Amino acid sequence: MQFTISREALIKPLQMVSAVVERRQTLPVLSNVLLVLNGDELSLTGTDLEVELISRVTVDSSSADGEITVPARKLSDICKSLSDDAILEFTLSETKLTLQSGRSRFTLTTLPATEFPSVEEEPDTFSLTIAQQKLKELLDNTSFAMAQQDVRYYLNGMLFEIDPEFFRVVATDGHRLAMQTVTMSNQTESTQQLILPRKGILELNRLISDGDADITLTFGNNHIRAKMPTFTFTSKLVDGKFPDYNRVLPKGGNKIVTGNCDDLKRAFSRASILSNEKFRGVRVVL
């Protein structure tokens, strides 16, 4: 396995994949990133067994295909320390991967690619295609309400509700609830409800851009997969039932407040200075 690639081409996909890898792992191979060279395409894979990210990049030159795993953080730190216009030469010799750039030379220990876990393949049940910008808006507007480390594990994530005529996302931590719906036609005969874990939502939101390009989300019985030309994102689904959010939505309210968003935000911010640090509650008097 031998190839040459510029730092500029490698650094972004490497940082994307390294973000998925947890620093502390029970399995040593989970701290590594899987490098697979096939012709002039290099794929980088990182996983924590819940979320998997595969990023693809074209190398400048290659002389031997192969696959190996190397420490993700070490490789990322090395690339960040090099100059922007650096050219990186990778050479695999038995169990050592040598990285050379100019007068700098690094040797990394490796683990066999056969030990690297991969997300099991399963038949797809249905899919939906949505503009990246719209999906990012949905996640940005609702992800703040997701619970963190709640014993009710199904709240530590976000509900995706796919109907033949709309796509809705819902998040709640038991104290607040955020929901947003977009009208669109979907390839499903009935309403489907799926729960994505918190880390999966945060990673997916980090990956998608504000552009007009579409992204296709494919759902299986246990996984969701998002495919783009340069990356493939896979996340396990939470096995649980999301609470009936319709029961907690206010009905029959007769008090409506209309005001400037920035003015209201600043007013709440000033009042919250003296609020309880844990709940940050503010009383509203109309």
UniProtKB/TrEMBL annotation:
Residues 129-244 form the DNA polymerase III beta sliding clamp central domain. GO terms for molecular function: 3'-5' exonuclease activity; DNA binding; DNA-directed DNA polymerase activity; identical protein binding. GO terms for biological process: DNA strand elongation involved in DNA replication. One of its GO terms (cellular component) is DNA polymerase III complex. Residues 1-119 form the DNA polymerase III beta sliding clamp N-terminal domain. SUPFAM superfamilies: DNA clamp (SSF55979). Residues 247-284 form the DNA polymerase III beta sliding clamp C-terminal domain. It is found in: Cytoplasm. Belongs to the beta sliding clamp family. This is Beta sliding clamp. The lineage of its organism: Bacteria, Pseudomonadati, Pseudomonadota, Gammaproteobacteria, SAR86 cluster.
